[in-house]
Amino acid sequence: MSILAEAIVSALIIIGAVFLLVGSWGMIRMPELMTRLHAPTKATTLGVGGTLLASIAYFLAAEGVFSIHELLISMFLFLSAPITAHFLAKAYMHSRLKAGELPRPDGKGWSTYDKPAGVESGEAPPRDTL
Amino acid sequence: MIEHALTFAFSAISLALLMNLWSVVRGPSILDRVLAIDTMVINVIALIILYGISERTPVYFEAALIFAMFGFVSTVAYAKFVLRGDIIE
Q1: Contact B23 A28 (CB under 8 A)
Q2: Which residues in chain B have their CB less than 8 angstroms from residue A16's CB?
Q3: Distance from C-alpha of A127 to C-alpha of B88, rounded to nearest angstrom
Q4: Would the pTM count as exceeding 0.90?
Q5: A88: distance to nearest CA of chain B, Å?
Q6: Which residues of A touch B1 (CB under 8 A)?
Q7: Residues in chain B, pLDDT under 70
Q8: Alpha-helix residue ranges (DSSP H) falling in A30-68
Q9: Domain segments of chain B: what residues?
Q10: Does B45 touch chain A (CB under 8 A)?
Q11: Rounded (to 5) percent helix, strand, coil in chain A
């Protein structure tokens, strides 16, 4: 294994580990959940992406095989982290915050606080919206 | 060179896991704890992959993939439970 490949793998490992550490530290540092969501979903996802790239580079340089497993894991994590953050933020909004306490976006407002069609008038919602 | 980088990474991720554990203990709400457990799962995935590099074997990728899937599904299920009081309606 050449010295250049070793340097690349080591740099990727260290970058990934530092991002993971920063993400976990940010989760302690931030004051409440809505700001706390930023650190794990951004920094930690990048960190695990760095270690997965290091693993790809290591097995490519040491054994000459391009392994696709890491790409699978990193693609899954990059897809699932925003969904996780979205669900946690939505659960937090509905359990702790009122619609009036939030900054108003352009247009009609927060659609997650809207009532489903037909609820105000007391009748059952139409079947096709269920 | 890789051995030293791995030593650094193992200690950094161990520190990150201790921080996550502190975050789980502190809370204060249940969603903070769910977020901390989710971050812990991601740290454990990175730890498993780095262990695979240090052992020079690709056996551990399946374990990491299963951890990723279980972490995602359990976090979404718990957030949905907090949101609606039910997981599958």
Answers
A1: yes
A2: 9, 46
A3: 19
A4: no
A5: 6
A6: 3, 6-7, 10
A7: none
A8: 33-36, 38, 45-62
A9: 2-84
A10: yes
A11: 70, 0, 30
**pLDDT tens per residue, range A57-90:** 888 888 888 888 888 888 888 899 899 998 888 8
Domain that holds residue A85: 3-104
CB contact under 8 A, B53 and A58: yes
Predicted local confidence at residue A130, as pLDDT: 44
The string over B3-22, giving b where at least 16 C-beta atoms fall within 10 Å of a residue's C-beta and e elsewhere, is: eebbeebbebbebbbebbee
Assess whether the previous peptide bond of A116 is cis (omega < 30° from 0). Answer: no
For residue A99, report the phi and psi dihedrals to the nearest 5 degrees. -65, -30
Amino acid (one-letter) located at A7: A
Q: Which of A67, A68, A61, A65 is nearest to A12 (CA)?
A: A61
Domain count, chain A: 1
Smallest CA–CA separation between A5 and chain B, in Å? 10
**Chain B interface includes A49 (CB < 8 A):** no
Whether A91 sits inside 8 A of B83 (CB atoms) is yes
CB neighbourhood size of A102 (10 A): 13
**Is residue A120 a part of any domain in this protein?**
no
B-chain residues near A92 (CB < 8 A) = 29, 31
CA dihedral sign, ordered A126, A104, B27, A28: positive
Whether the predicted interface score ipTM is above 0.90: no
Structural tokens at position A62: 């040491």
Q: Which of A25, A51, A84 sits opposite B19 (nearest CB)?
A: A25
